[in-house]
Amino acid sequence: MSNIVSVSVSTPHMVAEIDGPIGWMIFNRPERRNAVSLDMWQAIPEILHRFEADPAVRVIVLKGAGDKAFVSGADISQFEKARSTAEANAEYDRISEEASKALAECRKPTIAMIRGFCIGGGLAIAIGCDIRIATEESRFGIPAARLGVGYGAAGVKKLVDLIGPAYTKEIFLTGRHFTAHEAREMGLVNRIVLDAELESYIRKYSTTIADNAPLTMLALKAAVGEILRGHEADWARCDRLVAACFDSRDFIEGRRAFMEKRRPVFRGN
After folding, report:
1. pLDDT score of 1 more than 60
2. What are the DSSP calls for 150-176, one per residue?
3. Domain boundaries 5-210, CATH class
4. How far apart are alpha carbons 250 and 102 in whole angstroms?
């Protein structure tokens, strides 16, 4: 009997499920290679906040429905209406930026499970995750220069922070598709696995993370985020989160488990 719990979402184009410690956020437009429509952007914070509020969820995995794409980009067919004027474009940007912000600020570990195309807005979603795991058939790219699309500095910075300025320029200036191995060489993805093994690998990987102390992972995510902010970093916030680890019952459990040579059971408090 399945233990998967379906979570109500405001659009059928997004699916949210909880399976043990894993929260699955699924881009559900396989007929359009999971191109992100406006309702999908709006649903991303909704799903993430639901997963963050559930203590049973320890890891969040993002994936695309079907076997053709993670996310093939933003839905260009909506641009004629949704981005046809400066006002409409500003509203579209506000909604998509809220989604990006929710992913970037998510308090739980996030993994992009990448099968097939990961293009444009799909790549932006993937780089917003903590870890990216792809198959050998995955393809990556940002075709902005082929569409005449302006790419905001905040989005460019996220890519520069991840892979550096030289590779960022190559991705944007060529507008071409890059192989999974090229992406791995850039540092764009963490791991490449066989297509048939992707989901089982992700489940095992997620379980490894889920077994670890949630407060420690939260402190680590915050530290990396503040380091990337440079001179604007809130070091006091990092110190508070580290102190919370040492004040937690999980720290007591970790010490005792180590001394007793057993697997620790962390509660996140």
Report:
1. no
2. ---HHHHHHHHHHH-HHHHHHHHHH--
3. alpha beta
4. 27
